[in-house]
Design goal:
The strands form seven sheets. Strands 2-1-10-9-11-12-13-14-15 form a nine-stranded mixed sheet, sandwiched between helices. It is built from 21 helices and 31 strands. With 684 residues, the protein is an alpha/beta fold. A hairpin with a 2-residue loop joins strand 1 and strand 2.
């Protein structure tokens, strides 16, 4: 058995040298190429930067082959890797550097703070590539030596939302144990070709990457899970057999793909879900929609790696559980006094503690917190749970998230699982709020992302009454556009509690205009349903109510509802766009199209048209319609295939079509894309 991930990669390079190891888009590394690159990178680090065993090297970069190579090269030298969040601000990186004092940070970003000892990851990777492909490369110049298995391999900083960051110190032996747990708990093998759309700075992504390389499988990297097109491309390009994903991303992709979800995911033989609990409702949908795909739910943390595993497909009767502890992992519960508890039911649940070779040695430079977390060899979690007689672990939630209703303990997860089965709820999160009557202390409050704007609270309560005891029923529903989540898409309950306690109506109950602005998404797929003529007339009127420079109002709104003409547009534009290298995407099956054109002699024409387009799309959203702005025509209006078509629609020859809006009743509700928050500057 291999002792480290590096030793495994070197072994696979000898046994299966031509097998693909790591791929990203068109980048491909076989196991021999990966091993050579790791050796070359390690040689450069050793000779040029004098990296030695025990040194600390931080890595902050996108999930690409160069990340994998640099990570393994640092471990090749017996040094310690500190993965940093690529999305971290410069201040956060500086703060982290002050904590761990790395020898330097390998990064693919430009960092302006000179206090950060940085090196260009891209430059080092290119130099390593040139070295290992050049003449005279000696792979044995710097032979690999197994490290002290108790020395620290990784320091994984938690991505929690409270307090100072905590760095979990994982030894080489802990990483080996966690890797074996994952291999056996999910039945992975060397024939797997797995799509990994996860950041490699996080314990989940790193754990899966290590496991795949350890067993000699193939890793297909993808930066993020937001774009279905890239996922489908990777499936077609590499024939992926498995995928790992965070729970929230799966739910969003399920909504975005709609009817295509089954068509896409049936190609995967298995899926691992971690970093947050997937709702029971979503698990049931996956089992129903893609019955041939094996679904694994894994519980783990930065401190433990994967520790509890559930084969959901094999044990649907325990679909709400975390699963069973891995071999060699002991899980038990303690009461509020720290005494062992016979916690076999929700009523007798206790704080979950565990012990195993996979757990961390402690928190970096935080002995006091370490002493509170690891007691007599057991790692204390903050989770309330119980374990059934047949060994399945059920979690009620974080200890400080449990809702105390007149002395009765309510699990927010139980409420969420029940609510996820209600067809009118797309997403939800439960927290405890003050009892408005001042009797029960706390009551459950359910934040809801509804399927549509007509959410019926009474119907939801009636549905939940058949699944929950009376005291567990939500006493208040708060409709929101999206639930706040952290970097790994886990629900940010602290933020929800703050929203609830602040009573900020602008946060909890936006006025209709603000709600429309926050809630509108680009929709590209529509159901077959006609938009009433009077509604389209209202949308156009909203368009020409927009401001116009110097009040010129030189625009024209061309409304197309004839399906033959829409088909003509869809067939005419793509070849012209391709010829002119113009991006054209999203005109799938709209019921109507509104073209907004303006006299090209008007220097404010594009601004006027843009304001009108935004008015139309916000108004459409407020009426339950979906819309998407397609701007390919702004560069193609005078092409020989396009202008005659515009002429037939009565678009003046002096006009440029600055916006084309596709409209219809949405087939699904797209998820919100992350918005940059560093784009605002105040001058006061």
């Amino acid at each position: 058995m291999f002792q480290t991930i590096v030793e495994a990669v070197l072994g696979h390079a000898k046994n299966t040298p031509d097998k693909l190891a790591v791929c990203f888009k068109k980048q491909r590394l076989t196991y021999k190429e990966l091993a050579d690159m790791v050796r070359a990178f390690a040689q450069l680090l050793s000779e040029k930067k004098q990296v030695r065993s025990g040194d600390i090297i931080m890595i902050s970069a996108l999930s690409k082959p160069e990340y994998v190579v640099s990570y393994l090269a640092v471990q090749y030298l017996g040094a310690t890797v500190v993965p940093a969040d690529k999305a971290s601000t410069e201040d956060s990186l500086t703060r982290l550097c002050h904590i761990v004092e790395p020898k330097f940070i390998l990064t693919d970003s430009r960092l302006g703070d000179d206090s950060i000892p940085k090196q260009s990851l891209r430059a080092w990777y290119a130099e390593a590539e040139a070295l290992c492909t050049g003449e005279g490369f000696d792979p044995d110049k710097l032979p690999y030596r197994l490290p002290d298995m108790n020395s620290i391999s990784d320091v994984i900083f938690t991505t929690g939302t409270t307090g100072d960051p905590k760095g979990a110190m994982l030894s080489y032996s802990a990483i080996l144990a966690g890797t074996i747990n994952t291999r056996d708990g999910t039945d992975r093998h060397s024939g797997n070709i797995e799509l990994l759309p996860l950041p490699l700075n996080h314990s989940f992504g790193l754990r899966v990457m290590r496991t795949l390389l350890y067993i000699g499988a193939t890793v297909i990297l993808q930066n993020g899970f937001m774009f279905a097109k890239e996922l489908i491309t990777n499936l077609e390009e590499y024939g992926c057999t498995g995928i790992s994903a965070v729970s929230a991303s799966v739910e969003r992709l399920y909504q975005n793909l709609g009817d295509r979800f089954a068509e896409v995911f049936v190609q995967f033989k298995y899926m691992e879900i971690s970093a947050g609990s997937l709702s029971v409702g979503m698990k049931q949908k996956l089992l129903s929609v893609v019955p041939t795909m094996h679904l694994y739910n894994v519980w783990g943390s930065s401190e433990t790696g994967g520790a509890i595993f559930l084969d959901v497909t094999a044990h649907p009767e325990h679909i709400a559980s975390l699963g069973k502890p891995a071999n060699g992992v002991e899980v038990t519960m303690v009461d509020s006094e720290g005494n062992r508890a016979a916690a076999h039911t929700p009523e007798t649940a206790g704080r979950m503690i565990m012990k195993g070779d996979m757990q961390m040695q402690g928190y970096y430079k935080q002995p006091d917190i370490t002493a509170e977390t690891i007691v007599d060899g057991y790692l204390y979690t903050g989770d309330l749970a119980y374990i059934t007689e047949d060994g399945f672990v059920y979690m009620l939630g974080r200890a400080d998230d449990i809702i105390n209703v007149g002395g009765e303990k309510v699990s927010p997860i139980e409420v969420e699982n029940a609510a996820s089965l209600y067809e009118g709820i797309r997403d939800c999160a439960c927290v405890g709020g003050a009892d408005p009557e001042g009797i029960m202390g706390q009551v459950p409050v359910l934040f809801v992302v509804p399927e549509d704007t007509q959410f019926d609270e009474n119907a939801a309560t009636k549905f939940l009454s058949g699944k929950l005891e009376q005291y567990k029923l939500p006493k208040q529903y708060i409709q929101v556009d999206e639930l706040p989540r952290n970097r790994m898409k886990k629900i940010d309950r602290k933020k929800l509690k703050q929203m609830l306690e602040s009573g900020d109506k602008t946060t909890l109950e936006r006025n209709p205009v603000i709600s429309a602005i926050y809630g509108r998404r680009s929709v590209r797929d529509f159901i077959e349903r006609r938009i009433p003529r009077e509604l389209l007339e209202q949308l156009v009127e909203c368009g020409y109510q927009a401001p116009s420079g110097h009040n010129m109002q030189s625009w024209q709104f061309t409304v197309i509802t004839n399906q033959e003409e829409i088909k003509r547009i869809k067939e005419t534009i793509p070849p012209v766009a391709k010829r002119n290298n113009v991006y054209f995407y999203g005109l799938n099956n709209p019921d109507a199209i509104i073209m907004i054109s303006n006299d090209r002699r008007n220097p404010d024409g594009i601004q006027d048209s843009s304001c009108a387009a935004q008015n139309i799309m916000l108004a459409a959203h407020s009426y339950g319609l979906g819309s998407v702005w397609i701007n390919a025509l702004m560069k193609l209006c005078d092409e020989p295939e396009i202008r005659p078509m515009l002429d037939s629609y009565g678009v003046p020859k002096t006009h440029n079509v600055w916006a084309m809006i596709a409209l219809g009743y949405p087939a699904n509700r797209p998820s919100a894309l992350a918005k940059k928050t560093n784009v605002v500057k105040w001058v006061e």
